Write a sequence for this structure.
């Protein structure tokens, strides 16, 4: 594949299982040389809780609360902790390893993509966003056990005035990587909090306080409501500016559709 070429896939609001299957399919196809470097943006047609690749669902997720609130649970192909996807735009970047625009390390790739996200936010009028340094625990020692993604600001994630705005996660195979993350348009911290299990009442209250006061969203930062398509244009422009190449609108190919069908077929 020509490393100057970038494919843009701009999806609408989708089902959680399908969203995750598409990201995974692009990654696998890219690792096999069957798909180009890709920037995909998408949303969620219903509130959905995603959990990290190795997160223990029985230990950290309140399935009864999820069922009561009619919220499906899906597993990401990347790591990290539970995150409620609701009012947001999700980006995913998939590229071969090695790629001339990215350093060879996870951290270096994170930094490069974070710079593209900062450029996207500037296009949207957000000038005070910053890339976080070393791990910054919002909850102190409790964050090591917390089930919530937004309980910790990880290296190279995006903050505004010290509050976490964008969470991201990356998965690296031998020949390709996937990084995806959430640009939160608006939040329901109480709902997100109610879907998780906690090791103690202290942790329970600390996580709720963190989700309420130590995280933020685009509506809070810009003091206005935002539409998914508007934010999508920020991201597309920001990445094209930050990562030079031949960018063109595209769609999934037959190899990727075949992988998606496999991923979504229930095991017998």
């Amino acid at each position: 594949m020509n490393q100057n070429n970038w494919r843009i896939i701009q999806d609408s609001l989708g089902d959680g299982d399908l969203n995750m299957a598409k990201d995974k399919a692009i990654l696998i196809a890219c690792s096999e040389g069957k798909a180009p470097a890709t920037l995909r943006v998408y949303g969620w047609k219903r509130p959905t809780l995603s959990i990290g690749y190795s997160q223990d669902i029985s230990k950290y997720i309140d399935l009864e609360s999820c069922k009561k609130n009619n919220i499906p649970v899906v597993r990401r192909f990347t790591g990290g902790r539970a995150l409620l996807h609701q009012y947001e735009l999700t980006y995913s970047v998939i590229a071969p390893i090695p790629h001339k625009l990215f350093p060879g390390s996870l951290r270096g790739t994170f930094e490069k993509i974070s710079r593209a996200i900062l450029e996207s936010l500037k296009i949207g009028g957000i000038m005070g966003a910053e890339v976080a340094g070393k791990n910054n625990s919002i909850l102190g020692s409790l964050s090591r056990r917390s089930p919530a993604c937004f309980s910790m600001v990880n290296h190279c994630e995006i903050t505004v005035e010290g509050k976490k705005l964008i969470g991201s996660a990356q998965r690296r195979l031998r020949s390709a990587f996937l990084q995806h993350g959430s640009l939160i348009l608006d939040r329901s911290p109480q709902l997100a909090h109610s879907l998780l299990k906690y090791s103690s009442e202290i942790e329970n209250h600390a996580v709720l306080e963190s989700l309420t006061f130590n995280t933020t969203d685009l509506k809070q930062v810009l003091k206005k409501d935002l539409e998914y398509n508007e934010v999508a244009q920020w991201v597309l422009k920001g990445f094209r500016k930050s990562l030079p190449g031949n960018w063109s609108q595209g769609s999934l190919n037959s190899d990727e559709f075949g992988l998606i069908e496999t991923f979504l077929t229930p095991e017998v």
